[in-house]
Amino acid sequence: MNFRIIGIHHIEFTVSSLVRTKKYYEKLPGFKLVANYPNFIMFYTGSFYVGFTDHKGSLKEKKFNEKNVGMDHVSFTVSSRKDLEEALLFFDTENIPHGQIKKLSNNTYVLAFRDP
Description:
Layout: E1 10-14, H1 18-25, E2 32-37, E3 40-44, E4 49-53, H2 81-93, E5 102-103, E6 109-110
Parallel strand pairs: 1-4
Antiparallel strand pairs: 2-3, 3-4, 5-6
């Protein structure tokens, strides 16, 4: 086979509230709303697309848990640790559940947040 995967085109998430999710993600710098349907929205980040659906309200679980089979997480890249510190302030302002900035063994800093 002579093909290569060269990046991420899109990621899609099932969320508990499209209204809450849309309000949150449209505030993120660089996220542009490119699709807006009753049960699906999609943003373009400048590098890839992020889609969200509520599956017409037919969710079995109303809260995400990375310990279930399915998506564990997605990681967005920022330019600096300062950006992560600004993200902490944003999450606090928007009442988004989040962890703290952590340094991994490969000297990468991460900041986890939950479905808004």
